[in-house]
Design brief:
The protein has 393 residues and is α+β, with helices and mostly antiparallel strands. Helices cover 52% and strands 14% of the residues. The chain is built from 15 helices and ten strands. It has helices at residues 4-9, 44-56, 61-77, 81-95, 103-119, 123-140, 146-161, 165-182, 185-205, 210-221, 229-244, 248-257, 276-282, 284-290, 325-335, and strands at 26-30, 37-41, 268-270, 297-305, 311-319, 339-340, 352-361, 364-366, 373-375, 380-385. A hairpin with a 5-residue loop joins β4 (297-305) and β5 (311-319). The longest helix has 21 residues, at 185-205.
Length: 393
């Protein structure tokens, strides 16, 4: 199983190290016979013992980081978010001194820690940890190493999630310029596309940003590098997102009209937003119950991507004990309206099975007119892909 926390936090990273050696994996079936998903992983007890044994024998720091990541992932999958963060925090304390010797491994550990901090609502700490991960990479890698560029993009992402658009834009533009100077067109594309994606998303809610969004899209359009052709094509889909700001049907129709290329894997091209504002207005009893909840609710949701790129058979296969049906229904409704590129499969084929973890998170923030930090009254949803991709060899 891949390190989900690590991979979700940053695209295009170097290869993820293999997990520490533990007992043979266990297959867990979820659901009835007609709606069964098998999740293959390791028991928490096994990964806990493996980590403890590694620490006791003073194993090399790389092995200990791998064991910590493996155990934290198991805790996360079980819904023990706070425990997973404590595992990563302790590992950070033991291994930060090796950041010059092992910049990639320590950077991986910090990036996973930042992801878990975001999942428990510690957005400020998540942003700072993203910067710490960048500093770890910079301490032992050449300044033009792609992994430094990509982690700097993750810092920009943290600013964007906090609504600090100018700071995020400046970080993205810095990466675009640095990657361009280093001849790394791919990372330049990621950076320019992030600017466009950020402003396009904002323009859906605030029309005053539409001109800025179109300007950022033109920057992508005006690139000439062959490696950026995919980004230029994707910019057309961002324009569909602008149509989505007028009506959900317009955005979906726009995406479907461009949906001609058939692919082998599930490539998402349109996803409507999960609008929690309507839920908060319509379900005030849940707002009272869930207000400022420090423990994230979560749900594992499975679905099929059909050969024509539509989504069908959306199933909620597992939830936390406190998860309520109201916000989960908003998630499943939005998921069912997604559009993927058509697959290289026969129309009679069932398609590709996917599973994703959705977490309802209340960030910690300063109260209005106070220096006391409390849980925000406005939740947001964090998404992690739990699908285990088939190996190609």
């Amino acid at each position: 199983m891949a390190f989900l926390l690590l991979q979700s936090a940053s695209p295009a990273q170097a290869a993820v190290p293999p997990p520490a050696t533990v007992s043979p994996p266990v297959a867990l079936s979820i659901g009835d016979e007609e709606k069964t998903i098998v999740v293959v992983g390791h028991r928490i007890e096994d990964s806990e013992r493996a980590l403890a044994a590694c620490i006791d024998r003073q194993c090399p720091p790389k092995e200990e980081i791998d064991a910590s990541l493996a155990h934290a992932e198991n805790q996360f999958l079980a819904g023990n978010y706070a425990d997973a963060q404590r595992t990563l925090s302790k590992a950070r304390g033991r291994n930060m001194k090796y950041r010059k010797e092992l910049p990639v491994e320590v950077g991986d550990l910090l990036r996973a820690s930042g992801r878990m901090l975001a999942l428990i609502g510690q957005s400020d700490a998540a942003r700072i940890t993203a910067i710490d991960s960048l500093d770890a990479l910079k301490s032992g890698l050449p300044s033009t190493d792609r992994r430094i560029f990509v982690q700097r993009l993750a810092v920009g992402d943290a600013f964007a999630k906090e609504g600090r658009l100018i700071a995020a834009r400046d970080v993205y533009n810095k990466v675009a310029n640095q990657a361009d100077a280093a001849g790394d067109a791919r990372v330049k594309g990621y950076a320019l596309f992030r600017v466009a994606g950020m402003y396009t998303a904002v323009a859906r809610e605030f029309p005053d940003y539409r001109d800025t969004a179109y300007q950022s899209l033109r920057r992508v359009d005006e690139t000439t590098e062959p490696d950026l052709a995919a980004f230029r094509e994707a910019a057309k889909l961002l324009r569909c997102r602008m149509e989505d700001s007028r009506s959900a049907e317009a955005g979906r129709d726009c995406a479907q009209a461009m949906n001609g290329k058939r692919v082998a894997t599930a490539e998402l091209i349109y996803a409507p937003p999960i609008d929690l504002r309507n839920w908060r207005r319509e379900d005030t009893s849940s707002v009272v119950t869930l207000h400022g909840d420090a423990t994230p609710q979560w749900a594992d949701i499975a679905f099929w991507v059909a050969p024509d790129g539509t989504v069908r058979d959306v199933d909620t296969v597992r939830t936390s004990p406190t998860a309520t049906e109201t916000w989960v229904k908003l998630v499943t409704d939005a998921l069912g309206k997604r559009v993927y590129r058509p697959l290289q499969l026969a129309p009679s084929d069932p398609g590709l099975r996917r599973i994703e973890r959705y977490s309802l998170v209340y960030d910690v923030a300063l109260s209005t007119g106070s220096r006391i930090r409390t849980r925000s009254t406005i939740p947001h949803v964090e998404i992690l892909d739990l699908t285990v991709e088939p190996r190609t060899s």
